[in-house]
Task: structure prediction
Amino acid sequence: MKHYPIYRLLIGTVFSLNVLVLWSQNVQVNYLDVLDLKNGSRLTGTITGLEGDSVYVFKLVTGATLYIHSRTVKRMYQKAQGGPQLFKSYNFREKGWFGLVQLEFMDGQDVSNPLIPGFGLNMQWGYRLHRLYGISGGARYSQFNLQSVEKILAGYAEIRGYLLERQVSPYYAVAAGYGWSYVRSGNLLDASGGFYWSPQIGLRLGAFRNTVATIGLGYQFQRATFNYNISQWDRRTLEKRIEFRRLTLSTGLLF
Result:
C-alpha cells in the first residue's frame, strides 16, 4: 500500500467530507426575524401573529410586544441566532451565468512504475438553466506524467448539476470534447490528439451568491499519438498511441 499514497488521500478526503456533510445537515440553527423600518429603525425579535391583513404582532428580544403596520416596513428578513455559523443561509444562484476553475491531481500506473503522478488545470464558463443541470464550455490542460513531455490541451462541453437545496450539495458533471497535443521537445517530432471525456462526482461546499469551493473525484480518458526520434544515426522513429485513463482528485472555485 505504500506505493499508492494518493489512494489514502482520496479515501481520507471522501470520509472527512461525508462526516462534514452529515454534521452540517444536523446542526440546529434558530433564526430571528428582523424588520428594517422606513424611519431608519431596526427591530429584532419574532413575528408571533398577524392582525387583519397588514399589522404584524412582533415580540422583541427584550420581551416587549409591538404592533407594526406593514406600510412602515422597508425590509423583512431573518438572521441566525447565536454565534457564527459554519455556513451562511442557502442563497445559491440556481439560474444564470457561472464560472469554474479547478486544479486536478491525477494518478496512473504502468508495468514499470506503480505510481505516475500528474496534474491538470480546468477552466470553464457556462449557464445554469436549473439547479439540477447547466451547460458550459471550457479548456483543460493535462500533464499525465510529470516526468514526460506528453501534454494535452482539450476543449470540451460539459453538463453539470447540483442535487440538493442545501449548503453542502453533491454534484455530478460529464464532459466530452477533443484534446490537442503539441511538440515541446527535440526528441518529439510530431504529436496529435484525440477524443476526450471525463465524468465526475463531488461536493459543493457552500451555497452563497459569491465564490464557493468544490471538491470532486473523477475519471479522465484521453487519446493521443506521439512520434519520437529514437536514433540520431538512422532516423528511426517510435510512434506511441496512448489511451490515458486516470483517476482525478480535484479542488476548485465556483463563482
Q: What stands out?
A: DSSP finds one helix and 14 strands in the chain. The chain has two domains: 31-80, 94-254.
